[in-house]
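Now for our target.
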Amino acid sequence: MGLWRRREISFPDGRRDTTTRVYWLQTQALFADLRVPADRPVAAGARSFADYPAEDLPRLARMQGFAGRFEVEGETCRWLRELDFQPPGGPPDEAQFRIDGDILVETGIHAAYEEIWQRETPPGADLAAFRLLPDDAGGPGMLVVAGDHFIAVEERRPLLPAASSLADLIAAGGADLDERLGMLIAYGRIGAARWRVDLATWPWLEGRSLAAGGARFEPSRGLLHLTGSNGRRRWQLVEASCAAAGLGARLAG
């Protein structure tokens, strides 16, 4: 459990990736994952995907991320994706893994790969998970926290149709870019920087605060209020490894 950073992924045909920035945050029951290729473009002054030139769109569409429920059955781990930056489809997300100290090795079951992960939070770090209240945004959302690390996921677009990839959907045209690329997935740190975003599917949020307008937690109701540049959000606590009363100071940043 906790936050893991991927060091590499390798495939039987010899392909190997050590440059994609990947963070995976796991609680007992929920998870979130963000994967941003090293060549993902960042356009100066951009505040939406419409501000990017057409030649950048294929690389933007290669970002990945997902969130949902986590299950373990015997030696098999299963990640049930409720939210996914890419279109629906593909094999089940199931794997086996082994842990050696702060290194986790994941081996795919339905797809041939091996991922090596580095632990970023100490064992026993406080964990919490929230779901976005449906009256606050156009779709569902999930927020997972380990220590002072977080990954927030918000569906801000109509559901994507089935397709082999998001790049194929964008190439086909016929929809607003924000309807294709608009899911927000943000990784960052709570604390003095007040929910600073370090990596996101919305590049213009990086280096800014997810809660510049304030963060407040109500322990009695399990409600977390975050107000930032992308609006006001209310998150309902659904899982915590510590007492709700102890979360207030940490979540306030």
Observations:
- The chain has one domain: 2-251.
- The chain is about 10% helix and 45% strand.
- The longest strand covers residues 64-73.
- Residues 11 and 113 are 5 Å apart (CA to CA).
